Every structure is written in C-alpha cells, then in structure tokens.
Amino acid sequence: MSDCQHHWVMTNVKYGFVIFEKCYHCKELRTYFTEDDSLLLGDEYREGEHFYNRLESAQSFTFDLICTRCNRLETFNDLIGLFYCTSCMPNCQVEKLQQQYAPHKTWIMVAFGVLPDAKKNPIPQAKLDILSDYFNQRRDTTRSRIKIVSFELIADLARCKGGFIHDVGLLTKEGPSEERKPLF
Amino acid sequence: MTVQELIKIMGLTPLSTFEDREVKGVFISDMVSDVMTAAKSGNLWLTIQTHKSIVSTANLADVSAVVITGGKKVPQETIDIASKYNIALLSSPLPTYTLAIKLHELGIEAE
Ligand SMILES: [Zn+2]
Ligand SMILES: [Zn+2]
C-alpha cells in the first residue's frame, strides 16, 4: 500500500471517436473507441450470431491518469466516456443522487464503461473515486465538487436521454446534427 | 476581476443564472476535449460552440464562465442545463479574436 497523497494529472491523451453499435437481433449494445476516422462510415456487419448496426459516432478522447508525486499510472482504457444526466427519469438512481448531492454543491457525472463487457465487469468503484479525485483536485472545491458514478445506476438505458460529453461539428464526415434520440 | 464585473465592462449578456466568481485567465477552444484536458480552474472559456456538452465540460474543468462569441444563438436546453449547474453562460456579439484583444487590454491573458 502506498501512503502517497496522490495528485493526478491526465496523460496518454488520445483523440478519436466513440462508436455505438447495436445488434438488431438481440439488441446487444457495443461501444468502442477508435483513432481511425475511416471507421466512421461503417456498414452493418455480422460477427458470430450478432448483426451490428451503427447507431451513432461521436468525437471524443481517452486518457489515463498519473500521480505527479509517486508516478503511479491509472489506466482508463475501460472508460468510453463521461455522461451527464438530464433528469429524464424521476425514479433513476442517478437523478436521486443528483437531488441528494445538489444541496451540497456536488455534481454527479456518469462514467460509461466499454459495452458489452462493462455490464459484466463494471469499472471498479476505486477507479471511479480516482477519477472524482482528479476532477476535484483541478477545481476550486470550496465552491463545488464532482462525484463520478457508474452508468449501471441509470434506471433504464433504453429511455435515458442523458448525453455523452463529446465534440460536435468539427468534422466534415459528421452528418448534419439532429435532435438526439435515446441511444440504447 | 469577477464574472459580474467583466459582464459590465465588456458588455456581455448573461444567459444563465450563476454565482459570481473570480476570473483567472482565458482559454480559447471550440473542442470540449481540449477544455477537458487543458483548461484551468477559473479560466474564462471563449467558444463558438453552443451544444449541451459545453456545460458539463465547463463544469468538469471548473471554468469561471463560458462566453459564446460571434453572437451565436444558444439553444434553450443548453441555457437551462447551465443554470442547473450554476455555470455562467454569457454571450458576446464580438468575434473571438476581438474579444480576446479586449481581454488582453484588461490584463486577462491565456495562461
Ligand atoms: Zn501518488
Ligand atoms: Zn446479437
């Protein structure tokens, strides 16, 4: 056990794209990150029993965190993106947490793992806490704090209207923007 | 200088409700990934982007305010989320370049 009071900074930042696909047979959702923009124009494809269709792609980035004091590296290649709640479902655990934490000026953000793996092996809470620590270390915490929670707390992915933090409108390969439908 | 002081001096239009705070430096980018990786707490963020992601980005990066330049129209949804998170969302009819020069004249610089 290290007794370092870790101070995290971003490292290994990669810019690329998050791709969302869904099998139209079993409705399984697949997400992955790629730096290859030729994958943006993907067609339907078969893999085993699945027939994956492109739902959406978004410009995003991935990163790891490193401690400036002890050089400990915490990798986040299992994190596909950060997601904000739009309070779309009153019975959703994320919305309940938001209401619980808002009076304490703590904002909830949702970490999304790589699907479908993350459904079985979600990002461990200890790693989400490191992510929360990172964002709190770079902010004025006398004003407000950040708390990162797991996407598993979302009540109903099929109805969720929250959104991924992503870049918009900076690429010619992106289609015209339209009002976002629930992703899943 | 605080956000409210800057609004008066620069003739900015506040779009959201927010708590006043100190402005420390300026960060200019139209990519939220840029802001997430490199902006510093208290920075004034100048951008032409108006989509919802800018609010959560501003929140995570702890910028003091977001200034939408060039008089771009901001969707009501973006404004509502900004108010929810106490993020100062401001608008300026000036292009980013002109605004940056004025900030420089006030001693607010990129860090
Ligand atoms: Zn450490
Ligand atoms: Zn399938």
Give a description of the structure.
The complex is a heterodimer of chains A (184) and B (111). Helix content of chain A is 14%, strand content 36%. With 184 residues, chain A is mainly beta. Chain A has one domain. In chain A, the strands form two sheets. In chain A, strands 1, 2, 3, 4 and 5 form a five-stranded antiparallel sheet that branches. In chain A, strands 8-7-6-9 form a four-stranded mixed sheet. In chain A, a hairpin with a 5-residue loop joins strand 1 and strand 2. About 3% of the residues of chain A have low confidence. Chain B has a single domain, classed as 3-Layer(aba) Sandwich (Udp-n-acetylmuramoylalanyl-d-glutamate--2,6- Diaminopimelate Ligase, Chain: A, domain 1), CATH 3.40.1390.20. In chain B, helix 3 links the parallel strand 3 and strand 4. Chain B is globular, with a radius of gyration of 12 Å. The interface between A and B is medium-sized, with 29 and 25 residues. The complex binds zinc ion (2 copies). The site of one zinc ion has 6 residues of chain A, from loops.
Q: State which percent range the strand residues of chain A make up.
A: 35-45%
According to CATH, what is the topology of chain B? Answer: Udp-n-acetylmuramoylalanyl-d-glutamate--2,6- Diaminopimelate Ligase, Chain: A, domain 1
Strand fraction of chain B: 5-15%
From the coordinates shown, what is the CATH architecture of chain B?
Answer: 3-Layer(aba) Sandwich
What is the residue-mean pLDDT of chain B, rounded to a whole number? Answer: 96
Q: Which percent range fits the helix content of chain B?
A: 25-40%
Tally of alpha and pi helices of chain A: 3
Number of strands of chain B: 5
Largest β-sheet summary of chain A: 5 strands, antiparallel
Pairing-aware structural class of the strands and helices of chain B?
A: alpha/beta
Terminal CA distance of chain B reads 16 Å
Secondary-structure element series of chain B? HEEHEHEHEH
Largest interface: A-B, 29 and 25 residues
- Our Rg estimate of chain B from Cα atoms comes to 12 Å
Present as ligands are: zinc ion
